[in-house]
Amino acid sequence: MKKLFFVQRVLAAIIDWIVIYLPLYFLVNAVSSGYFTPEIVTAALFIIYHVVAVHSFCGKTIGKSFAKIKVKDTGISIMDDSVREVVKILYFLPILGWIVGLISIVLYFKTEKFLHDITAKSEVVLCD
Predict the structure, then answer these.
(1) Predicted pLDDT of residue 77
(2) What is the pTM for the complete model shown?
(3) d(CA 24, CA 53)
(4) How many C-beta neighbours within 10 Å does residue 88 have?
(5) Which positions ≥6 away from 115 have C-beta within 8 Å?
């Protein structure tokens, strides 16, 4: 069950990345004129998308909807929900992001929670 759930979570992340992150990246890259790094701006916008989606759509993003999973409500306010998503910005950092991502995967197979779930005390569950 743990491996199947891991596959569902990875599938959700890939769908969100393809549907939201890539178009955002190309849009930001086309609009930017060298004043900032498009990768950082795109990552920030992607995190904002996750915060708004998780808070507004019962714990689901587009990818989570397709994968039939959701984030169990961690709090009442958008600030409570945003803690989980803001930790994900670490995954976008050059070099350090790979290290943090690897640590997060190891944590998942030991605790059944990724780093951002542990930090925010959140839980991802199957949809009813």
Answers:
(1) 72
(2) 0.85
(3) 16
(4) 23
(5) 87, 90, 100, 103, 104, 107
